[in-house]
Design a protein that fits this description.
It is built from 20 helices and no strands. By secondary structure, the protein is mainly alpha-helical.
């Protein structure tokens, strides 16, 4: 074995060992302060409430009371804050018992993310790295929707020859977490992928129309009114604010407010749009486009937590699994940024920089090349 390759393999093993230690520590911390599946519980309860009394979907107190059996003495508000368009997507799981629905949801959506990763890498090492990353463990332990969003978006961006299917997948993802895909119309317009944009808009519109037919207009108005209240919950909780990974959240944590914060947010919007423009006007890989699209949206989002990094896990894991490329040390550093030890905004900006590498000519590596599916 080539000595350089041997050293790289040992370095990667050391990183995996470091992640395992971090994962165990993260699991201990989560189990110490909150119940297992705590973020899936509002989804499960919120959708069940929507079926019985839709006007209570965005009543924070009502949804929290519905989770008393799990929360016990946890003592914090646990609202349902996903848009009404997400109800039909979550519905099959809400019809199950919680302790069946929670693992079923994580296994199904986790399988989607891993399958999307495998299609681009065909390396077991890449899947292992994804599974070892602390944000991925965090998502599993709390029951987040990051695997669903990440798997759908990565699959959509890799289906170059199937614009309609790709658009539908992207539209479904946007119907679940629109704040993470707010820049997708710009991205597709820059590529001139009008059929994909139309399909995404149609799929999202169909889910919105279905929710209107099921629940009426009221829940949509209630959702819009709930968003500022949810932001206030995070902004007023110093513990939650410490885990926020967005630049806006970092400034709020530092006490920046008023016109200064608004001016900074304008700059973040410009930066997010610039990231998407750079990635989607060049022959970048699906992994780079995933990073630009979701990472760019995180730049301008007010708040997002560290588990959202699980969406970008394939973008760091797939290049790091290919030990033979000349730029491998850069990919290893990008992978290390997801250890949750750094301030979230620093890790986000670092990940965008190291995955996109805007200073280099774009030369997509074979492991991350676009995949066309024609069957």
């Amino acid at each position: 074995m080539d000595s350089t390759l041997r050293v790289r393999r040992l370095a990667l093993l050391a990183v995996v060992a470091t992640f395992l230690v971090a994962d165990v520590g993260l699991a201990r911390e989560i189990f110490h302060v909150q119940p297992l599946g705590i973020d899936f519980a509002p989804i499960w309860s919120g959708v069940r409430i929507a079926l019985e009394r839709p006007r209570d979907m965005y009543d924070f107190a009502a949804v929290t009371r519905d989770q008393d059996w799990l929360l016990g003495a946890f003592g914090k508000v646990r609202p349902f804050v996903y848009p009404p368009s997400s109800v039909t997507i979550f519905l099959p799981f809400a019809l199950m018992g919680f302790w069946v629905a929670y693992p079923a949801f994580m296994l199904t959506t986790g399988g989607l993310l891993l399958w999307s990763t495998w299609r681009l890498s065909h390396r077991a090492t890449a899947l292992l790295l994804v599974l070892m990353l602390p944000p991925v463990w965090w998502s599993v332990l709390v029951g987040q929707v990051t695997f669903l969003v990440g798997g759908l978006v990565l699959m959509a961006l890799s289906l170059r020859s199937r614009p309609i299917l790709a658009g539908v997948l992207l539209g479904v993802a946007a119907a679940v977490k629109p704040q993470l895909l707010v820049l997708f119309p710009l991205a597709l317009a820059l590529e001139g992928r009008w059929r994909m944009l139309a399909a995404a808009t149609g799929a999202g519109g169909a889910l919105c129309a279905l929710s209107l037919a099921m629940l009426g207009v009221g829940p949509w108005l209630d959702w819009l009114a709930a968003l500022p209240r949810f932001s206030a919950l995070i902004g007023d909780d110093r513990l939650l604010l410490a885990g926020v990974i967005t630049p806006t959240g970092a400034l709020v944590r530092l006490g920046v407010a008023g016109p200064a914060l608004m001016a900074a947010q304008v700059l973040f919007w410009v930066a997010g749009a610039a990231v998407v423009w750079w990635a989607f006007t060049r022959a970048t890989s699906p992994l780079q486009r995933l990073t630009a699209l979701v990472g760019g949206s995180l730049l301008l989002a007010p708040y997002a937590m560290g588990y959202e990094f699980a969406i970008l896990a394939p973008a760091a894991a797939v290049p790091a699994a290919n030990l033979e490329v000349p730029r491998w040390p850069i990919h290893l550093v990008a992978l290390l940024l997801l250890n949750l030890a750094l301030p979230g905004a620093v890790a986000l900006i670092g990940l965008l920089t190291l995955v996109l590498q805007p200073w280099r000519p774009v030369e997509p590596e074979a492991a991350a090349a676009p995949v066309s599916v024609t069957t």
